[in-house]
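Morning F.,

Quick status update on the modeling queue. The single chain you submitted on Monday has been processed. Sequence for confirmation:
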Amino acid sequence: MKTANFDDRIKRSKSLLRFAAPQMFYPLAGTFAPWCLAVAAVLTVLGLWIGFFVAPTDAQQGDVYRVIFIHVPAAWMSMFIYLVMAFWAAVGLVLNTRLSFMMAQALAPTGAMFCFVALWTGALWGRPTWGTYWVWDARLTSQLLLLFLYLGYIALTQAIDDARRADRAGAIIALVGAVNVPIIYFSVQWWNTLHQGASVSLTRAPSMASAMLWGMLVMALAAWAYTFAVVFWRVRSLILERERHTEWVGAELAAHEGRA
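Structure tokens below.
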């Protein structure tokens, strides 16, 4: 019985590992991407409705606080995507898997976008709250550094013609830059900073109304779904570019032209 269960686990593992091949992952990504985008659209509408029409006005900040429904999920995603990008870069370096490097490259533009949105919406909130769009606050400065790390990764991987060298050079930046993510998260605890502490924590009750919390969480889920959708589509483009000389890509392109 134990031998049979072990064999079943081996078979399931092999079944999942086959999707590590670009040829197998390509159709899977194409199947899931539209569904993820549809979920993202629905959740975005729901989250914005909760944030702008259901959540109460803050007693101290007034309605200007509502920017958090975009700012906070964007900030969360900018940090999380970078860690995931670093993870795939590490997997690519250790196992030398082509798809891992492609996943890292596909994640970078979306992470940079969320990082920019977090900085931009933070500036819009900071003007009426702090009286200025920008201060060299510990969290703001480390978040800005995160944006530069994203842009540096993208620029380096695009500047090197040889794909293997570009993958490895970008992976080193991703892994070194991952040190900045915990600095961003803990900056409000480590230094005297103007930025407020976390309103949502796993170890204590949230310091906000339930409608505010739900609006923020729904928008965070929308950001997740959007990320899955665009990364799936982007990695499909990278697969076609990297595998363009293979027979299966030629067959795929021929089938697409036939449908068109």
